[in-house]
UniProtKB/TrEMBL annotation:
Sequence intervals crossing the membrane: none
Keywords: ATP-binding, Kinase, Nucleotide biosynthesis, Nucleotide-binding, Transferase
Enzyme Commission identifier(s): 2.7.4.9
Protein name: Thymidylate kinase
MF annotations from Gene Ontology: ATP binding; dTMP kinase activity
Similarity remark: Belongs to the thymidylate kinase family.
Gene Ontology BP term (one): dTTP biosynthetic process
One Pfam family per UniProt: Thymidylate_kin
Gene transcribed to yield this protein: tmk
Function: Phosphorylation of dTMP to form dTDP in both de novo and salvage pathways of dTTP synthesis.
PANTHER family recorded: THYMIDYLATE KINASE (PTHR10344), UMP-CMP KINASE 2, MITOCHONDRIAL (PTHR10344:SF4)
Organism: Rhodococcus xishaensis
Lineage, uppermost ranks: Bacteria, Bacillati, Actinomycetota, Actinomycetes, Mycobacteriales
Enzyme class: transferase
């Protein structure tokens, strides 16, 4: 069974770029690596409905924090069998966003903290009722809020398909979400967490992950 790793962080933090570089180096170590991005836009009706709602469609759907969280949770539930197959066939499976994203953004929308009611509800919903596998390791790409926002805006300017949604446009929400991520990491929410700096060397990170995959003990902070 492979090691399940989730990379978390704000919109514009650079998760996709980091994952691509780390995967290339892990494969140089001879490891079998698979990746999966959440939400699964274009592959999941629940993800697409949520995306459309955040861009003004579907009436008042986006106004409900819990309704949006359920949409994102059902997107992941729809990938449960795929996740199981990937873990069976690979040494590491790296996810760009996972359950912690739902917890962090929803709690931030409700002005709650990482130990609040919403985060507990998400844990019960996704890991409990929907039966999603808990990650072996979660990594928080800790990029300053202003820098992440600037990157997201540059991404939008360079690609009309990547138009910012309501969450991405709300800088105060992004700041609160960042605070919740930090709280989840500090509390080791549902796994060990590593905090990754924006200037982290992908090769060094890949080496640590390769070592982790070969060990049986608890992952330690890099």
């Amino acid at each position: 069974m492979g090691t399940l790793i989730a990379l978390e962080g704000l919109d514009g933090a650079g998760k996709r770029t980091l994952v691509a570089k780390v995967v290339a180096r892990l494969e140089q170590h001879g490891l079998r690596v698979a990746t999966l991005d959440f939400p699964r836009y274009g592959a999941s009706i629940h993800a697409d409905l949520a995306s459309e709602a955040l861009k003004g469609a579907h009436g008042d759907l986006s106004e409900s924090v819990h309704a949006m969280a359920v949409m994102f949770a059902l997107d992941r539930a729809g990938a449960a069998e795929q996740l199981k197959e990937l873990l069976a066939a690979h040494d590491l499976v790296i996810l760009d966003r996972y359950v912690a994203s739902n917890a962090a953004y929803g709690a931030a929308r409700l002005h709650q903290h990482g130990d609040g009611e919403f985060v507990a509800w998400i844990e019960d919903l996704e890991f409990g009722r929907l039966g999603l596998p808990r990650p072996d390791l979660q990594m928080h790409l800790d990029v300053p809020v202003a820098l992440a926002g600037e990157r997201a805006r540059r991404r939008e300017a360079g690609d009309s398909v990547r138009a910012l949604d309501a969450y991405e446009k709300d800088s105060e929400l992004q700041a609160r979400t960042d605070a919740v991520y930090r709280e989840l990491a500090a509390a080791s929410w549902n796994s060990q967490w590593w905090t990754i700096a924006p200037d982290t060397d992908p090769g060094a990170l890949a080496a640590k992950l390769a070592h982790l995959q070969q060990r049986d003990d608890t992952p330690q902070q890099p």
